[in-house]
Amino acid sequence: MIFVFYFFTLVLVFLGYKSLHGGIDYLNYFKKELVKTQPDFTPYASVIVPCRGIEEGLRRNLSALFQQDYPKYEIIFVFDDEKDQAFTAVENLVESNTDKIRADETGNSPGKIIDVLNGSNVPLSQRADIEKLVTVKYVIAGRAEVEGQKVRNLRQAVLETAAHSEIFVFVDSDARPTANWMRDLIAPLEDETVGAATGYRWFISKNGGFSSQLRSVWNASIASALGANGKSNFCWGGATAIRRATFEKLNIREKWRGTLSDDFTVTRVLKEASLPICFVSQALTATVEDCSFSELLEFTTRQMKITRVYAPHLWKASFAGSFLFSFTFWTGVLLLFFVSGWQFWVTLAFLLTILALGVGKAYLRLNAVKLVLKNYEKELNQSFLWQMTLWTITPILFFYNDCAALLSRKIVWRGIEYELKSAGETVIISDNTE
Fold it and tell me: Which of 50, 369, 416, 424 sits between 20 and 30 A of 130, alpha carbons compared?
């Protein structure tokens, strides 16, 4: 029996070696991308921000969108209901970013036009003459009926984009982008053969609690799956840019109908069209917030339930991998208390090798992230010990998430309970805001 255990530890060592090699590639990719000269590609873009409810750091997150080093773009804030608290919060934010605001003269949507740079009113006839212009629109999408509320919001918002907009940028309200985020994210789209450009989130804890740090480490394992391979990359809905022409050619708005996951759907459509997805390391986006243990479980389980429906092959891999690590590694730790002689030393050697490989991967990953999120160096340094240790228990969390996904397809997201019938059928069970 002990030799069966050693066989599985050898498998873990092999997987750990591959993971460490992936960490080296991840760090090297960041270094390469950060020194590369980006094309000066800045066509007019529409930044679409679905909002629902008030969340931690909302004002700072959305304020960052007004501070982008990008010449001309529109920000479309989309809500399901004008009575949503987020609507008032956004209105107050817009008021603080300009001295004078007037109604959009186009009459196409209930928007507002502002010149954030000068803080002054800009006549429509003069918009082409200024260096920076940010146009703000509000869109009320209404309640979803046959799809996720976020998807409903996005499907409505793309209809309200300016006719001359060439790029659609999707960003979540809990993301806090840097000033160059938009320029960096859009730059790869100068190459028309690129399907989409994406970033990803990195959770940063404000107070350093266990649950918040565990969520960050759990999420980090997914973040480091992105890299140079455009065929294996995936879109993250919190930071994705796509050419309008590509979006419309692939009929993505219609492909979203009935779905809950906007990003899994876009990823699938792009892969079916054999269009690569470019991961932009500079577009790694901080999500600065804490969570309780129950919120940790709710978030991670929701992610894996969505994964099971939209990417079952990834869920199966996660289920098998998390079980293999959790059972083998922690069984090995227990064995140290019951075996002696050569069995003790062999078991210890295997465990120390697995630990060394895992710590090495975590170290490389954290150093890659620090190259981009320089404004959060203090918080990232404070998370060092958590990142170096908690990866040993995240597989247990993944296994719990995967088991929960096996038993149920119901989730609660932003106060709405859904049942995921399939990748193209979403049932709304209840909405506690009603």
Answer: 50
Which of 264, 273, 265 is closest to 246 using CA atoms?
273
Q: Which is nearest to 286 in space by CA: 238, 225, 242, 241?
A: 238
DSSP per-residue string spanning 210-250: HHHHHHHHHHHHHHTT-SS-TTT----TTEEEEEHHHHHHT
**What fold does the segment set 37-301 form as a domain?**
Spore Coat Polysaccharide Biosynthesis Protein SpsA; Chain A (3.90.550)
Residue 347 DSSP one-character state:
H
State pTM to two decimals. Answer: 0.89
Q: How far apart are CA 382 and CA 3, in angstroms?
A: 40
Angle of CA points 206, 210, 212, to nearest 5° = 45
Within 10 Å of residue 95's Cβ, how many Cβ atoms?
12
The per-residue pLDDT for range 40-56, each reduced to its tens digit, is 999 999 999 999 988 88
Distance CA(358)–CA(376), nearest Å, equals 24
- In the chain, the amino acid numbered 361 is K
What DSSP state is assigned to residue 80? S
346 has pLDDT over 70: yes
According to DSSP, residue 39 is labeled P
**Residues 240-286 pLDDT 10s:** 999 999 999 999 999 999 999 999 999 999 999 999 999 999 999 99
Pairing relationship of beta strands 239-243 and 167-171 according to DSSP bridges: antiparallel
Task: For the chain, give every domain's residue range.
Answer: 2-27+305-431, 37-301
3-class DSSP state of 319: helix
**From CA 212, how far away is CA 386, in angstroms rounded?**
10
Pinpoint the alpha helices (H) of 114-180: 149-157
What amino acid occupies position 21? Answer: H
By the 10 Å C-beta count (0-12 exposed, 13-18 middle, 19+ buried), 105 is classed as exposed
Could you report the per-residue pLDDT of 109-153, keeping only the tens digit for each? 444 444 444 334 455 555 555 667 889 999 999 999 999 999 999
